[in-house]
Description:
The chain has one domain. It has 59 residues and is mostly helical. Helix 3 (27-43) packs antiparallel against helix 4. The protein has 4 helices and no strands. Helices cover 85% and strands 0% of the residues. It is globular and about 30 Å long.
Amino acid sequence: MERIHRTLLHSKDLVVSYMNVLQNINSSTKQIIKGILLEIREDNPDLYLEKVNLILEKL
């Protein structure tokens, strides 16, 4: 699951679409995704900090 999210984070177009999808999912799923994104951000902040923060702001 984490690999899919990392792949999404590499594309600006996909990040925007992904944020739109995340707005329409239930809160328990949002929490799972939030945890995955936080882990990705912690593992490699230089690469993912900005995009993960952008997504988390929309959650």
